[in-house]
């Protein structure tokens, strides 16, 4: 007895988090979905100029996607945009940070592993970037929230070694030990980056109040660099690899000194 066509066709909401050209007209897409996590599909004919699916399946697009189950890869049969996020493909800073976000999610996701919390985080963060909200703040918020969503939330309020409350003084954030080290216990991980009091306040504000709270603060250049260095090191430790997108962002900063300079941007609700 054969299965009905209905058993072979399904619909899902998805964000396109990766793509790879195949042959002359096809493309393999990496989708991240709310119910089935990350998986790869094939979009046949999507690179033809007249393709109706192509505008709805650009990188970073959030769309409704219709798929047919295939032997190796499911096949995209139709797509309709929910949030195309076209702004991310016209703003160099936003594009670089969006690439970093999807790269991290792909690194921390196993195929077909549901993580609705991570999906919602990605959707919100891409929308923030598309709306012109400060890419630096969005990326730091995303790093910390993603670590929580995948089970690697850092201990920010007590020393991970002696368990005493962290006080207002320079303390280190240890990726290897999973959180803050007080000055007495800092020898437990001498490679852990030391954070100023202001840098610690910013990270804890991200943890307690999310992006909206952090956007109310203006960081000086040194504090911003400390926060970025500590959080990216924390993420890199658990990802067990360097981020290619982050390396590109840093190269652009070196080539273009004003790249990523503080500007007035709208806040997040």
Briefly characterize the structure.
This protein is an alpha+beta fold. Helix content is 37%, strand content 20%.
Sequence of secondary-structure elements: HEEEEEHHHEEEHHH
**Can you identify the CATH superfamily of the largest domain?**
Recombination protein O, C-terminal domain
Biggest beta-sheet profile: 5 strands, mixed, barrel
Specify the CATH class of the largest domain.
Answer: Mainly Alpha
How confident overall, as mean pLDDT? 91
Number of helical regions: 7
Instruction: Give me the CATH architecture of the largest domain, please.
Output: Up-down Bundle
- What Rg do the Cα atoms give? 21 Å
Number of strands: 8
Strand proportion, as a percent range, falls in 15-25%
What strand line-up does the widest sheet have? Answer: 1-2-3-5-4
- Would you tell me the structural class of the helices and strands? alpha+beta
Description:
This protein has 269 residues and is an alpha+beta fold. The protein is built from seven helices and eight strands, in the order H-E-E-E-E-E-H-H-H-E-E-E-H-H-H. The chain has helices at 5-8, 92-107, 116-130, 135-149, 197-214, 221-239, 244-255, and strands spanning 9-22, 26-33, 37-43, 62-68, 74-83, 171-174, 179-181, 194-195. A five-stranded mixed beta barrel has the order 1-2-3-5-4. A three-stranded antiparallel β-sheet has the order 7-6-8. Strand 2 and strand 3 (37-43) form a beta hairpin. The longest helix has 19 residues, at 221-239. Residues 259-269 have low confidence and may be disordered.
């Amino acid at each position: 007895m054969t299965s009905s066509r209905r058993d072979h066709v399904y619909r899902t909401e998805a964000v396109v988090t990766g793509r790879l050209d195949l042959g002359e007209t096809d493309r393999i897409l990496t989708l991240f979905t709310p119910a089935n996590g990350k998986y790869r599909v094939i979009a046949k004919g999507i690179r033809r100029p007249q393709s109706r699916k192509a505008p709805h399946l650009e990188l970073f697009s959030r769309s409704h996607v219709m798929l047919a189950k295939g032997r190796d890869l499911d096949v995209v049969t139709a797509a309709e945009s929910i949030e195309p996020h076209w702004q991310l493909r016209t703003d160099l800073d936003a594009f670089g940070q969006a690439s970093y976000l999807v790269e991290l999610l792909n690194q921390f996701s196993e195929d077909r592993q549901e993580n609705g919390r991570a999906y919602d985080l990605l959707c919100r963060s891409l929308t923030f970037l598309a709306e012109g909200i400060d890419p630096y703040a969005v990326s730091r918020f995303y790093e910390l929230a993603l670590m929580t969503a995948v089970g690697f939330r850092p201990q920010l309020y007590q020393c991970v070694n002696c368990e005493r409350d962290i006080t207002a003084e320079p303390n280190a954030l240890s990726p290897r030990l999973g959180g803050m080290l007080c000055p007495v216990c800092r020898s437990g991980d001498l490679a852990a980056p030391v954070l100023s009091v202001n840098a610690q306040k910013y990270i804890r504000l991200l943890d307690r109040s999310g992006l909206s709270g952090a956007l109310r603060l203006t960081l000086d250049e040194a504090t911003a660099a400390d926060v970025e260095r500590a959080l990216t090191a924390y993420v890199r430790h658990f990802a067990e690899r360097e981020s290619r997108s982050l390396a590109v962002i840093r190269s652009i900063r070196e080539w273009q000194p004003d790249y990523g300079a503080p500007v007035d941007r709208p806040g997040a609700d």
